[in-house]
Amino acid sequence: MIQTLKVRHNMEVAHRLFEMEGKCQQIHGHSMWVVAEFEGHVNRHGVLLGMDFAEIKSQFRTALDTEYDHHLLLNEDDTLSSLTLPGLHTVPGDPTTENIARWIGEWCQQAFGRQGLHRVRVEVWETQTNSATWEARHVEGTSALRTVS
Questions:
Q1: Which of 58, 60, 38 is closest to 47 using CA atoms?
Q2: Fewer beta carbons within 10 angstroms: which end of the chain, N or C?
Q3: Mean pLDDT value across residues 49-68
């Protein structure tokens, strides 16, 4: 039987979209919600791929708190990225919601990806009405997950 396990966590993130014209070039913040989904077979004990739910939640939340929560995310090419500021974290490209979803998704894929995992999906809500989604699915005939969004 294939089932989905979801974990959800919030983070407070400041960022600036250096490469985008308009108001988002200003440093501003979001109260973001991140939902990660893992899809795969449930073992005879009723556990998805033998993945401990508590351990997944702990690792996921620790990663978000360490890398994103209460940080200022700036493109590594941003003219402000050379400043010494508390909480400054530089990233490869503009820290758009789409990129943040991809970076978290790639981390999830690496941290939890294992043979038998059919899908990893990450959705990042930057507001109550706006979100971006990244997804990787199993490729038939391989043990790999490939990005689909």
A1: 38
A2: N
A3: 92
pLDDT at 46 over 90: no
pTM over 0.85: yes
Rounded to the nearest 5 percent, the helix, strand and coil shares of the chain are 25, 40, 35
Residue 80 to residue 73: CA distance in whole angstroms: 11
| Helix H or strand E segment including 108 | helix 97-112
How many Å is the Cα radius of gyration of the chain? 17
Going by C-alpha positions, the residue among 48, 63, 39 that lies closest to residue 135 is 39
What's the confidence (pLDDT) of residue 51?
83
47/44 Cα distance (integer angstroms): 7
Tokens matching residue 27: 């440093």
Helix (H) or strand (E) holding 32: strand 28-41
Give the CA dihedral 105, 127, 74, 122, nearest 10 degrees: 0
**What is residue 88's three-state secondary structure?**
strand
